[in-house]
Structures are given as structure tokens and as C-alpha cells.
Amino acid sequence: MTLLVLPLAVVWLGATVLALLDGRRRLVGWLAVGILGANVAALVVLGVRVAEDGRQELVTGNWPSGVGITLAADELGVLFAVLSSAVLLVALLYEVLGGVRSRTFPALVLFMGAGLTGLFLTGDLFNFFVFFELSMIPAYVLSVYGGERRQIGAAFIFAVVNLLGSFIFLISVAGMYHVTGTLEMGAAAERLAGAEPASVMLIAVGVFVAFGVKLGLFPFHFWLPPIYVGASPAVAAILSGALANIGAYGLLRFGAALLPAELELGSRALIVLGTVSILYGAMQALSRRDVREVLAYSSIGQAGYILVALAIGGRVGFFAAVVYAVVNSANKALLFLAAGLRGWLVGAAFVVGAFSVAGVPPSAGFFGKVAVFQAGVAEDSIALLVLLFVGGALSFVYMFQIYQHAFWRPEAAVGDVSPPVLRGLTLGLAAVIVAIGIWPEPLLALSGGAADLLAGAAGGGAR
Amino acid sequence: MILLFSGVVAVLFGTGAFLMLKADLFRVVVGMVMISNAAILALIGSGLSRGAAPIHPLPDERISDPLVQAMALTAIVIGFGVTALLLAIAYRVYTSHESVDLDELSREEVRRERELEREEISL
Given CB atoms, is B32 within the 8 Å cutoff of chain A? Predict the structure, then answer.
């Protein structure tokens, strides 16, 4: 069972050691890359084990189950953990290759890696909050990294809004503990099903608000554009590709596995919020000309798809939400990294990301869109299908428009050509996205496993 | 007792939310502190039980719930760290903008946006 502790321990200890060293030195940067690489490798091994043998569980300190703090890895958690750590690794590599400008950057990325790994592998409600904070605090610090003067104001608002979300989540955890008397997720899910509906609904709303803020859904999105626009490319990739996964994972884990009855009850409202998010994000993105601003608003729109898929529910809906969340964070990481570069082949990398957002095969985004459409068909609502189609078409328009604006205009070509290694790295990431589009079986199998798990928890969920 | 706790939590949360809507950054930080304390009180309130300290419980003795106290301690530490960080960011805002007023900061932002738009049109 060391397999469960290993990825967490490696990156946590590494982060603590690196915090004492000067991150601007090349050696320290490469050490951080090595540690995070070990973390990703350990997570992949864990993922293979989970795919073969099913859920892995470990109760710390040899306590009997239900007393000690549990670490648990299932398909859903492992998938998100591998994805987030891989995005962090790419962003860290990008920054190390380009030259780190702050002594704390590598250590902060590793601390965020520790927080995210722990968050996706914990089976305990309160520990979820602790790891949640452990991954958010580096984000508050990183959001001012390499930014301009005005970025600090945006960072303050980012920190305050997200902290408010965190404390609302903490109050919901307190509520769950009061209602169920346990912090272990599995037991809590069982007891929540039999609890008084009115109080559980209140908890569910608190959880939704907390993760809605994190994901940047429509009514809670206002902090998002300034921070994504002002942050350095690597940090923007980290925030949108790794940190936003907390929102998607939290909605899936708490909404589908812990509070399925409330999810079912609120499904109409969630679909409406999701569609508003899709349309609002697309409209705002259409009207912008700055690449990163378009990407920021596109993130709000893409989060809407995840919410709609989740609200449709059942195996089809959960499957779509998982696939879409994974593909979306890979796209956003690629696009934010490519948007900061200039020179030969950068446009190619960017256009792969743009097509993936629009859902054009053979990119990975195609499978995300297909899964969401399947969910829409399962819901049997023509209005929803039309809306999903319009949202997809709009995303194609704004992505292509911004591609033209950023890479085809002669004025846009001014500025220094970026180092070839950075361009190679983004091109490599683009190649991975195409590779997932050509050989999607591993992703689809893991997502299918996660969807089975969630649909099983939601009570059969045959739809 | 639970009613009292929930009343205090509600008042704390409400005051904190009111302060967070102010334009002054330091009031926002104080509002955040109040909301974090409301969350900690809610944690304690979620497992309120009378009894002895559970160090060596005897079979026929009622014990109080130790878990909420452990959680509250953790949450206090996290809240403390986060407050320090927020104050540091607020200080950075002050040193770079020479103002801690959010309205003033957003006016500056609007001015910058206008300039950007003018550049965009001239392109």
C-alpha cells in the first residue's frame, strides 16, 4: 500500500526541501522537475494498478477503518491526479527552460502538486479541505508571479473570493459532519441518503457554490478574467489546467457520489446555469481581441459544458463530464503556453489547441464534444442539443478568429522569437493532444470506470 | 446551545460579508477573518457534546467529541496563515498603487482599458 503514499510523500518532502533553496538556480529547477516527474510516474503506476484491481484504500496509522484518516484511489481520483500533475510538470518545465524569475517558484509549484495529489487521493472530508487549502495558497502567491504592477490588485480579489469559497466549503463540511457523524466519504454518502432532505439541500448548495467559484462558472466567474489575463503564461496554464480541476472533481465527487438525490433535484437549475455559462463565455470571448482574455472567457464557457453534463447525470452524463473536464484542462494548458510564445511552429501548436476546443477531429476535444452530445441525446431535449451545437459553433468562431488575429496579422509578428526548446515543448503538448484524439481508449476506459463508479453511487442511475 | 452557536455564527458571517463589500482592502481582510472564525465556530457547533475529555475514557462515562476540536485547531492554523498572506498582498497593493481603496484601483483599471482600446483602434 506504499503506492498510495509514495506520490504524495515524494512531492511534499521535495517541496519542503526546495523551499529552502534558491529556485532561480538551474540545478534547483531541474531538481523540481525531477521530483514532479517522479510524482507523475508514481501516479501513473497507481493508475494502472487501479485500472487492473479497482479501488485502493489505506487507513493511516493502522487505525481500524472509520476511525483513521483514509487515503483512497479510484478511477476518478487517479485520472484527475495524473492529469493535474502532468499539467504542472509541463508548466514547470516551460518555466525552467525559459528561466525562472523568482526563488520560490519551483517550491510553490511542488506544494501545489502535493495539495492536488492529496486532494484527489483522499477519502476524508476534512482532509479534502486541508489539501484544498494547501493547493490554493500557492496559487494565490503564484498569481502575481512575473505579472505587472496591476496584477497585484487582481490577485487580492482572486484570493479573497476563493477564500470565501473555501470557508463556505468548510461550513458545508461541518454540516455534513453534524448530519452524518463521520468524515469518511463512503460512510457519509450512505448516511446522507437517509438524512433529513432540507438540511442536506443546504449543504449541497454550499458545496455547489464553493466548487462553482473554483471552476469559474457563470455567476461566480468575475474574478477569473483579470487573473488569467495578467498572469505569466506558465501560471495561467497551471491555474486553468491544474487548479480548475478541483472545481470539476469536487462537483463530480460531492455532487454525484455524496449528494446524488440533491443533484437530481437541482438538475434543472444546474442545466440552466450551465447553458448561461456556455453562452455568456462564448459571447464575451467573441467580443475580445486579446488572446488571453478570449481564453479566459472560453474557460467560463467550457466550465458550463461540464456542469450541463453533470446535471444530465446517469452514466452518460458523468462520463461526458469526466472526459470533457480532462480534455478541457489539457487544451487550456496548451493554449495559454502557446499564447505566450512567438516564432515558427507556435501557430501550429496553437491551432491544434484551438481545434481541440472547437471539437474538430482528430484532436482530443472531439471526444469531449461527442460525449457531451451523447449526454444531450440521453436527456432527450432538442433545445439542449441546439444549444450545445450553437455553443460549439461559437467556440469554433472565436478560437479561429483569435488565431487569425494573433498569428496572421503582420503587426502580430513583431517581438522576439521564443527559444526553440519552448516552442518544441508546446508542440510536444499539442502532439499529445492529437495522440489522445487518435488513440483515446485509455482515457475513455478510465473515464468509463469513473462514470460507472459515480453512476453506481447515484443508485444505479440507469438512463 | 446549538441555537446559540448558530446565532453567533450567523452574526459573525453577516458582519464579515458586510465588511467584505467595503472598498477598503483592510476592512475586506478583517471581514475574511470574521468569516473564517464563523466557519470554525460552525465546525465546533457541528459536534457539540457534553462530557469528559477523551484521554482515557471509562466504559460508563460520557465523553466529548474530540474530532471537532482537532478540526477547529487545524482550521484556525489555516485561517491564520491565510490572513497573514492576505495582509501581505494588501501591503503589496499599497506599496505599488499607494492606495488601499478598491474603487480607486478599479478607476485606474478603467483608464488603462480605455488606453488599450485606443491603441487597438489606431492599429
Answer: yes
- Using only C-alpha atoms, chain A has a radius of gyration, in whole angstroms, of 21
In a domain, A403, yes or no: yes
Residue with cell 492606495: B99
> What tens digit of pLDDT does each residue of A343-363 get?
778 888 999 999 999 888 888
Q: Rounded to whole angstroms, how far apart are CA atoms A320 and A316?
A: 6
The residue type at A410: P
* Residue A392 scores a pLDDT above 60: yes
- For chain A, how many structural domains are there in total? 1
The alpha-carbon gap from A174 to the nearest alpha carbon of chain B, in Å, equals 5
The pLDDT of residue A463 is above 50: no
The one-letter amino acid at A411: E
Domain contains A291: yes
- Is a pLDDT exceeding 80 seen at residue B43? yes
Residue A421 has pLDDT above 50, yes or no: yes
Tally Cβ neighbours within 10 Å of residue A30: 15
**Which residues of chain A lie closer than 8 angstroms to B104, CB-CB?**
none
Residue A141 near chain B (CB below 8 Å): yes
Parent domain of A425 = 266-463
What's the start-to-end Cα distance of chain A, in Å? 36
Q: Does A459 touch chain B (CB under 8 A)?
A: no
* Chain A neighbors of B20, CB-CB under 8 A: 160, 164
Q: Into how many domains does chain B fold?
A: 1
Any CB–CB contact under 8 A between A294 and chain B?
A: no
Q: Would you tell me how many other CB atoms lie within 10 Å of the CB of residue A309? A: 30
ipTM of the complex: 0.91
Contacts with A148 (C-beta within 8 Å, 6 or more apart), sequence order: A230
The residue assigned the cell 450545445 is: A388
In a domain, B113, yes or no: yes
| Residues of chain B found within 8 Å of residue A163, distances taken between Cβ atoms | 32, 36, 82, 86
The parent domain of residue B35 ranges over 2-51+62-122
For residue A287, being part of any structural domain is answered with: yes
CB-based burial label for A459 (10 Å; 0-12, 13-18, 19+) = exposed
List chain B residues with CB under 8 Å of A173. Answer: 43
Q: In this complex, is the C-beta atom of B67 within 8 Å of any C-beta atom belonging to chain A?
A: yes
Residues in chain A: 463
Q: What is the mean pLDDT of residues B80-97?
A: 90
Q: Residue A296 domain-assigned?
A: yes
Cβ–Cβ below 8 Å for B78 and A173: no
Do residues A329 and A296 lie in contact, with contact meaning Cβ atoms separated by under 8 Å? no
Q: Read off the pLDDT band of A459 (50, 70, 90).
A: low
Instruction: Express each pLDDT in A317-341 by its tens digit.
Output: 999 999 999 999 999 999 999 988 8
The reply to whether B56 falls in a domain is: no
* Residue B57 lies inside a defined structural domain of this protein: no
How far is residue A284's CA from residue A281's CA, in Å, rounded to a whole number? 5
Residue B18 sits in a domain whose CATH number is 1.10.287.3510
